[in-house]
Every structure is written in structure tokens, then in C-alpha cells.
TrEMBL record:
NCBIfam families xref list: CysN (TIGR02034), small_GTP (TIGR00231)
Protein name listed in UniProt: sulfate adenylyltransferase
Residues annotated as signal peptide: none
Protein EC: 2.7.7.4
Coiled-coil annotated residue ranges, if any: none
Sorted UniProt keywords: ATP-binding, GTP-binding, Nucleotide-binding, Nucleotidyltransferase, Transferase
Enzyme class: transferase
GO MF entries: ATP binding; GTP binding; GTPase activity; sulfate adenylyltransferase (ATP) activity
InterPro entries: CysN_GTP-bd, CysN_II, CysN_NoDQ_III, G_TR_CS, GTP-eEF1A_C, Small_GTP-bd, SO4_adenylTrfase_lsu, T_Tr_GTP-bd_dom
GO terms, biological process: sulfur compound metabolic process
């Protein structure tokens, strides 16, 4: 059976993506007679003075032909004696970057075309970064239009140097750099006599032989449940595609997130009963007992998958409206879709330099690292560990438009120390909620708050003393009473983290772990405050707080029209 290669072509406008694939199909005699004849006739009224315009094979939309650019993603299937192919020809114009990202999401390999006259452009970098973001590990950089520069080797070597810098910057893997002329056919399906100094393979030969299978780091078996099948009262099966490992009748599986155990009673592939199944097979699995499983749950065996409702993700923003922290979306991870909110835009990534830029919002076609809070814990993993459970999309809850796509970079759960405490030093840990934001939701008429997934701060670190709903002095003492830890901050930097037993009042402002001012202005009042805290219970807690704590001194509530409560 022939192997299948799924690849994408991308690059800047008019770099020759459609022409390249059209030429492969034409030269390799992969067209029906009527397609070939139609292409030849269409070319006579085209833009090449009667010569065959190979791009017409893929640029099927009338708007594309009129503009001479690709707008939509054109998918084509073809096969040679050695391999089957599915190719996605994607737009080059920046306005259609989101279309290009859709094509990249399915591909194993990317062909990025570069105009030999222009070299590596910003759009080249953007496409390479997006392809890498989508998990593509194999790249072909096709330096096109070599015929227009007289097949100049020196110019090619200059561009090759630019590509090598990009390779290092993005940590790209498995790249090939091939000089071609898509219109003239140089190094497209056969080696070019015009480029004798190039000793590598032509593009089609390279595609027929490249090995895109990589050793999997995944351990054990897991299958996200796509559908619960119950044709009658005696059968209940869980349907989905096996993403890793294998499963056999009689194996014990664990259901996540319910964490129940059951035995595999039967496995069905279409209408056949089978004893075992492996990766990439779509199956129905019946268990020997009833379990709490629905769409979005995961069946596992021998895995370390965990549930979380807090993630950090790198996303490509595709919506016309801006992304700002606090707006809620539907988040789809694997087969699970649920409400979520972008709690923080940590930084955006400059597509040209890779620099991390501080920002509070994101515009269309920009890439950023964001923190996202989900309405409930789901099974999720880092993208570089489990691709299926680490890729996500954000869907606008009003327009139902896909607003962003991205990958999970980090996850936080109840066992993860980042989710449990904010300050740490010399074995002391404190759960400071001092950086929570407070919002009044004008839609639900209620007070809401969210806590961005922040850093763990220690001595010498600088803390953020100003947020949307809080503003603290640069010199401050934080008393985290529930953990009995004192944090001293001077000029916005932590100078000491100590037990409250060792704490000495020095006259600076004091707040508790939630950022509320403590109404104590002397060593005696501090001692009285701490002694009363040790004695409080549910009955007198309100009295204690009213006496000693002021909410509004350094905090305020922000009105927000579109904030989802967590």
C-alpha cells in the first residue's frame, strides 16, 4: 500500500505556489485529457502570452483568476508510482493568513516558496512560524523564479543564508532548500540542466522519498470520545479515533476525567468485531460496565494524562475584532467544547524578529502567548507531547466564528505548584491572591474575578504593583495569614519572605494575601490583629474583617460588559 503525504504550499503573494503544483500535475501526466485540454485553452487568453499558465489548475475561484492571487485553500489529491499526495495550496496575502493556517493544520510537510528576486520576506517568516506552530516538522524552501535571475548561484547562496538564520531562529527541523523555476519546470519534476551547481533532488522526487513519520513520545493508549453510540438498551459504545497506543479486548482502561476503571468488552471497526486496534483506527469500544463518559471524555491505558482548567497557549488571532483579556469564547480541545475566557495576553511575538512584545490586546493575524481559564477541568496536554489534546480553537459565542487557533504550551492542575502558591523562598510557600482582578459583570449583574496564571515570585523578583483593578504602593508588606508567611516588598522588589513569627513591623503599608489593606499602624496593633486572627471562626469572621480589613483602599471594581464568571 502506498504511503500518503499531506503537504501545504505557502509563501508571499505571486511567489508561484499554484504554478508549482500545477506544473507537477502537468509534467507528471496526472491530468485527465479534458483537464489538460481545458488548461491549454484557458492559457491562451491568460497572462503568459499563450504559454501554459499552470496556476489555473488550482486557482479555481473566479475572483482569484481576476486578481492573479490565491484566496481560498485549494485541496488536490494526486498519486505517482511511489506515493499518494494531498496538497493544500494556500493564500499568500496577509489578509488571508487565517486561510493559510487552516491548510497548515492538516499537513505533515510545508513547501514555502521564496521569490529569488526578493528573498526572505516578513510573510515568509510569518508562514514558517505558523507552520511550526501547527506542528509541521518538515520544510522545503523552494527558491522560485531562478530563470528571472539567470540561475545565479551567488543569489541563491545569499537566500540560503537567510533561510538558515530563520531555521535557527524558529528551531525548524528537517529542511531542504531547492532552487526552482515553477513556470519553466526547473527542478520541479526532474533535475534542471540550467542549474548544474545544484546536486540535490528535484521537488517531486524529494516529496516521493521524504520520511515524515517520527518516533512518538506518547506512552500508552488514549482515545478522545467523539460520540456515545446507543442503538438499543443492551449496547453502549464509545466512538472515536485512537490517537496513541493500542487496545485489546480484556484490557483495563481508565476513563478521564471521571477516573473510573472498566474492562474492554468488545471492539468494533465499522461493522466488524475485532480483538485489538491501534493508532489512527476509528473504533467503537464497549465496556463491561456503565461509566460516566460523554463526548469530550478520554479513554486511557497506561498514560499520565491529567485534567486541568487553566492553560497557557500560543495562538494565532484570526478575528477582525481585537482580542483583549476578559472576553469569553467557546474553547474546543480534542473532542471537548466548553466556555472559557482569555484571562491574560502575556505577550505577542514579532513575526519578523521573534521578539516578545508586551501588549494588552491582539489584532488580526498576530501571534501571542495567552492564559486561558476553562469552565471546568478537561483532559488536556502540551502540544509537543500529545498533538490531539494540545491543539485548540477559540470560537466567538455570538457569531460562531473561529476567532483563533493555537497550541497548548503549559497546563496547571491541583498537583501543579504554580496553581497552589504565588510566593516561595527557603521552603516557605504562600498562596497570594493579591494579583486577582475584580470585575462587575454588567450582563449578569454580579461581581466576578479572575486570577491570571502568574509567575512564582521569590526574593529579588519584581512584582506587578498595578493592574486594572488594583494599585499598591511600591513599598509594602504582604501578610498571607492562611500560610503564615510575610513578604516584604521595597521599590516593587521582594526583599524577604519569612514566617510571620519572625515578622517585624517597620511602618510601611500592610495588606493581606488578597490585597486588602490591614488597618494597623503600630507594632502593638499588628500583634493584636494577629492574635485575633488566630481565634476567629465562622461566627466572628465577619466582625474581624470589618474591624481590621479595608477592601477599597488599594482595590476597586471595574465594570465589564463581556466577562464570563469563573
Amino acid at each position: 500500500m502506498k504511503s500518503l503525504l499531506k503537504f501545504i504550499t505557502c509563501g508571499s503573494v505571486d511567489d508561484g505556489k499554484s504554478t508549482l503544483i500545477g506544473h507537477i500535475l502537468y509534467d507528471a501526466k496526472l491530468l485527465f485529457a479534458d483537464q489538460k485540454r481545458a488548461l491549454e485553452l484557458d492559457s491562451k487568453v491568460g497572462s503568459r502570452e499563450g504559454d501554459i499558465d499552470y496556476s489555473l489548475l488550482l486557482d479555481g475561484l473566479m475572483a482569484e483568476r481576476e486578481q492573479g492571487i490565491t484566496i481560498d485553500v485549494a485541496y488536490r489529491y494526486f498519486t505517482t508510482d511511489n506515493r499518494g499526495f494531498i496538497v493544500a495550496d494556500t493564500p499568500g496575502h496577509e489578509e488571508y493568513t487565517r486561510n493559510m493556517a487552516v491548510g497548515a493544520s492538516f499537513a505533515d510537510l510545508a513547501i514555502i516558496l521564496i521569490d529569488a528576486k526578493q528573498g526572505v520576506l516578513v510573510q515568509t517568516r510569518r508562514h514558517a512560524r505558523i507552520c511550526s506552530l501547527m506542528g509541521i516538522k518538515h520544510f522545503v524552501f523552494a527558491v522560485n523564479k531562478m530563470d528571472l535571475i539567470g540561475y545565479d548561484q551567488e543569489r541563491f547562496l545569499t537566500i540560503e543564508g537567510e533561510i538558515r538564520k530563520l531555521e535557527k531562529e524558529l528551531s525548524l527541523e528537517n529542511i531542504a532548500i531547492i532552487p526552482v523555476s515553477a513556470t519553466e519546470g526547473d527542478n520541479v519534476t526532474k533535475k534542471s540542466e540550467n542549474i548544474p551547481w545544484y546536486t540535490g533532488l528535484p521537488i517531486l522526487t524529494y516529496l516521493e522519498n521524504v520520511d515524515v513519520e517520527s518516533a512518538s513520545d506518547e506512552e500508552g493508549f488514549y482515545m478522545p470520545v467523539q460520540r456515545v453510540c446507543r442503538p438499543n438498551h443492551t449496547f453502549r459504545g464509545f466512538q472515536g479515533q485512537i490517537e496513541a497506543g493500542s487496545i485489546s479486548v480484556g484490557d483495563e482502561i481508565t476513563t478521564l476525567p471521571s477516573n473510573e476503571k472498566a474492562l474492554v468488552k468488545s471492539i468494533h471497526l465499522t461493522d466488524k468485531n475485532i480483538e485489538s486496534a491501534g493508532k489512527d483506527q476509528p473504533v467503537t469500544i464497549q465496556l463491561n460496565k456503565e461509566v460516566d463518559v460523554s463526548r469530550g471524555c478520554v479513554l486511557t491505558k497506561d498514560t499520565k494524562l491529567v485534567a486541568s482548567n487553566l492553560i497557557t497557549a500560543t495562538i494565532l488571532w484570526m478575528d477582525d475584532s481585537k482580542l483583549a483579556a476578559g472576553k469569553d469564547y467557546f474553547v474546543k480541545v480534542g473532542t471537548k467544547m466548553l466556555p472559557g475566557v482569555v484571562t491574560e495576553v502575556k505577550y505577542k511575538i514579532d513575526v519578523n524578529t521573534g521578539e516578545h512584545l508586551t501588549t494588552g490586546f491582539l489584532r488580526k493575524n498576530e501571534i501571542a502567548v495567552c492564559n486561558i481559564s476553562l469552565s471546568e477541568k478537561i483532559i488536556v496536554d502540551k502540544f509537543n507531547v500529545n498533538k490531539t489534546l494540545g491543539e485548540l480553537i477559540l470560537i466567538d459565542r455570538i457569531t460562531n466564528m473561529t476567532s483563533a487557533c493555537g497550541v497548548v504550551e503549559d497546563i496547571f492542575n491541583s498537583e501543579n505548584k504554580k496553581d497552589n502558591f504565588t510566593f516561595e523562598y527557603n521552603g516557605l510557600k504562600a498562596r497570594g491572591d493579591i494579583f486577582e482582578e475584580f470585575y462587575y459583570n454588567t450582563e449578569s449583574l454580579s461581581l466576578s474575578k479572575y486570577k491570571p496564571i502568574g509567575n512564582i515570585y521569590t526574593v529579588k523578583d519584581e512584582i506587578p504593583v498595578k493592574g486594572e483593578s488594583y494599585s499598591y504602593p511600591e513599598n509594602i508588606d504582604i501578610l498571607v495569614l492562611r500560610d503564615w508567611v510575610a513578604i516584604k516588598v521595597r521599590d516593587k522588589k521582594i526583599t524577604d519572605i519569612q514566617s510571620i513569627e519572625e515578622y517585624e513591623y517597620t511602618g510601611v503599608t500592610i495588606v493581606n494575601g488578597r490585597g486588602f489593606a490591614i488597618k494597623a499602624n503600630s507594632e502593638e496593633e499588628i500583634l493584636e490583629f494577629l492574635n485575633e486572627y488566630k481565634k476567629i471562626d465562622r461566627e466572628n469572621e465577619t466582625e474581624f474583617l470589618n474591624k481590621w480589613v479595608s477592601l477599597e483602599t488599594y482595590r476597586r471594581v471595574i465594570f465589564h460588559s463581556n466577562y464570563w464568571e469563573i
